[in-house]
Protein: GNAT family N-acetyltransferase
Amino acid sequence: MTDSTLAGRDTAALDDPVGQALRGRHAHLARRLGRAATYLPGVATFASVSVGPGAAEWDDLAALLGPGELADMFSCPAVPPPDWEPVFTLEGRQMIWSGTARPGHLPAQAETGVVELGADRVAEMLGLVARTSPGPFWPRTHELGTYLGVQDDGVLVAMAGERLKPPGWTEISAVCTAPEARGRGHAARLVAALVARIVARGERPFLHVAEANTDAIALYERLGFTTRRKVTFRGFRTP
Ligand SMILES: CC(C)(COP(=O)(O)OP(=O)(O)OC[C@H]1O[C@@H](n2cnc3c(N)ncnc32)[C@H](O)[C@@H]1OP(=O)(O)O)[C@@H](O)C(=O)NCCC(=O)NCCS
Structure:
């Protein structure tokens, strides 16, 4: 795929990546009621209602999740009824792959030393996530897409994987490197390997990152990601 066709790819699906994924390629990992949807427990906490929903859709989501549960609305700007208690707010940005990295920054041999991580490596993935805090990751999150890792003497020291899959796009997520293995290009290699796999399928990579994570933003920019929009991640407790 050329840069120009990448640049022309429709970005509208990225305005509601959770809803678009839950109603599309992740439908087999979704629970739905009316126009509300969320991932199966253990896969992800993200939930979706349509933008500007009516009270009935919030009622659907409350029924789906149960009372006093986390409604992780990801980047959805819709405001729930006043009895939904705010739990968290996090400023972030959505970045899309531009089609080219800065010269010398997208490793040519990205797949060298990279292994696919499956259900048998979940404990190690959870352990690495606990040490590095790249974002939410649960025992079944790896079912959302391909997860890749780098090992040092058989020990998992870095990983990255695919998460949300709205039509035409795949999100790169859970990018993390153990503190003692940083600065060796592991994250760059893993992101490059995922970019190559996603582009080879005729899709385009995107990702989300916390606004305060300036090191990660700089890394993604060197690898060819540009900011599409600023987002606010929000979570609420159901009444
Ligand atoms: C962000 C993170 C994944 C980077 O991992 P990494 O394997 O160190 O990244 P890389 O080595 O591929 O690239 C880091 C860049 O910083 C440079 N660097 C130099 N010394 C470094 C050091 N001690 N630590 C980190 N990076 C260093 C690298 O050379 C590289 O620059 P380059 O692209 O110009 O070559 C890692 O710091 C991390 O796990 N952070 C916590 C989790 C997180 O925030 N994840 C992102 C979620 S969106």
Q: What stands out?
A: Residues 1-7 have pLDDT under 50 and may be disordered.
